[in-house]
Amino acid sequence: MTRRxxxxxxxxxxxxxxxxxxxxxxxxxxxxxxxxxxxxxRGGAGGLPPVVDHVPTRDRxxxxxxxxxxxxxxxxxxxxxxxRLPVTLFLTDTVAGPAYGHFARLRAVGASLxxxxxxxxxxxxxxxxxxxxxxxxxxRKLNARFGVRPRLFRPPYGRYDTATLRAAADCGITxxxxxxxxxxxxxALAFTHGEPRLRPGDIIAVDPDRPKGTALTGRTEKVxxxxxxxxxxxxxxxxxx
Length: 241
Hints:
By secondary structure, this protein is α/β, with parallel strands linked by helices. 35% of the residues lie in helices and 14% in strands. It has helices at 3-25, 76-82, 93-96, 100-108, 128-146, 162-170, 216-229; strands at residues 51-52, 61-68, 88-91, 112-115, 152-153, 175-177, 181-183, 189-191, 203-205, 233-234. Strands 2, 3, 4, 9 and 10 form a 5-stranded parallel beta sheet that branches. Helix 5 packs parallel to helix 6 (162-170). Residues 1-42 have low confidence and may be disordered. Residues 60-235 form the NodB homology domain.
């Protein structure tokens, strides 16, 4: 083989290695119980919704999100109302359904209700039709109960694959929302990747399912202290996605 041919072959092998490494990292799930993960994609491709844990913005805002609906702290609606917090609640029907009245009160004081599946399964690896049933089914539940048609979806445990994105698109979802920061058991913020401090545009997941320790209102107040210490405020996620 000529010198030029050898050089071309080496360049081709190097390019293949880069592409394989990129493919291996693409679509890696963020799992709240599984540690670090690569930063999600910023935009969708092929008609699929983007996967985000951070919103590029010059506004000094971050976003407060909550999952499931298992914890119904009776003081939380008053906090949302009094602080005018545009929080985003990702609801699972089998968890939140028995207390949809509580979430109606939260919606009345400014909370946004979004999709977190019917039954909270780990979606990654499930057939497309099964994932579609979970996501579209919760779209119908929330529309029937509250008259809302969510645009945002959070996969349970932060686990998803291409079938999840296809199913979400089928159901009218325009963005799949993960998180870059979440309080640890001590209440301090832990970060999934990147610099360990809050930045404008960060999405925070305030874990709602801790039967012991500080109630949801207290945990949220501690997060708000850190937000304010950084000179940030809570923005409405739906206005930025």
